[in-house]
């Protein structure tokens, strides 16, 4: 009896480990994450979808809006990549939902949204989360929006914001939002020291971490510094040189 039980458990374990794979979104059926017809593994069809702690999910560019219903149940996916122009909506169908993804990569112009169909819903981190922004631009802002749930609990976990900001074409000054959520309890700790805002020397960049109306926002502020035109700079130098020469003659 014990041997039979052990063999059964071993078989279940092997099936679970065998399912871990790299899943690529095809969208061949609908917009539902949990439909295996929307995924491929090694270029072929699969009877599963990302659902274990070793799975990696890849959503390409311009894939439209994808819905991950009850993402607490299948929330053990290790890494999720969302390509430019694509949106992933993680919808909680229960009162309390634990999100157990390790890292998320957001392409420029993509979006990750947390919503809920239940009243007074909470979203909670089950472990530390890394959110990597792949060259955010002002023209194609990238959003991590958790304002669609009542509270987003950190449970003493840390959210690491990494990536970079493309400063090409920036003019004037403004703000590029990275993350927004509602919180009235145990908020996660945020670490954005790994986000590169060195950028171009002609653009001043800084982080903004504010809470307004119960919504906490983390963003990057930018100001394009005024750079003199080459002709103006040259004329200024000539005028300064003439002034210095005049003073020397008077001396």
Short description:
The protein is an alpha/beta fold and 251 residues long. The chain has helices at residues 2-19, 230-250; strands spanning 22-25, 39-41, 44-45, 56-59, 64-69, 79-82, 86-92, 96-99, 103-107, 111-116, 122-125, 129-136, 143-148, 151-153, 158-165, 173-182, 189-191, 195-196, 203-212, 215-224. 24% of the residues are buried.
Describe the fold and architecture:
- With 251 residues, this protein is of the alpha/beta class.
- It has one domain (21-250).
- Helix content is 16%, strand content 43%.
- The strands form three sheets. Strands 1, 2, 3, 4, 6, 9, 12, 15, 17 and 18 form a ten-stranded mixed β-sheet that branches. A seven-stranded mixed β-sheet has the order 5-7-10-13-16-20-19, with no helix packed on it. It has a three-stranded parallel β-sheet with strand order 8-11-14, with no helix packed on it.
């Amino acid at each position: 009896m014990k041997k039979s039980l052990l063999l059964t458990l071993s078989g279940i374990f092997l099936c679970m480990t065998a399912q871990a794979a790299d899943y690529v979104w095809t969208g061949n059926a609908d917009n539902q994450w949990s439909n295996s017809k929307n995924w491929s593994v090694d270029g072929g069809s699969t009877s599963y979808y990302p659902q274990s702690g070793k799975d990696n999910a890849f959503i390409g560019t311009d894939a439209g809006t994808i819905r991950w219903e009850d993402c607490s149940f299948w929330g053990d996916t290790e890494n999720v990549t969302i390509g430019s122009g694509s949106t992933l909506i993680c919808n909680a169908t229960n009162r309390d939902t634990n999100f157990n993804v390790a890292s998320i990569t957001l392409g420029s112009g993509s979006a990750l949204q947390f919503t809920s169909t239940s009243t007074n819903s909470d979203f909670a981190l089950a472990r530390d989360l890394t959110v990597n922004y792949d060259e955010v631009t002002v023209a194609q802002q990238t959003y991590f929006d958790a304002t669609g749930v009542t509270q987003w609990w950190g449970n003493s976990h840390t959210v690491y914001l990494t990536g970079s900001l493309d400063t090409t074409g920036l003019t004037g000054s403004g703000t590029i939002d990275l993350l927004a959520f509602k919180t009235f309890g145990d908020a996660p700790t945020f670490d954005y020291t790994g986000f590169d805002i060195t950028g171009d020397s002609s653009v001043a960049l800084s982080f903004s971490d504010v809470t307004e109306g119960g919504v906490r926002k983390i963003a990057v502020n930018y100001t394009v510094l005024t750079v003199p035109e080459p002709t103006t700079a040259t004329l200024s130098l000539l005028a300064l040189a003439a002034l210095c020469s005049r003073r020397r003659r008077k001396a």
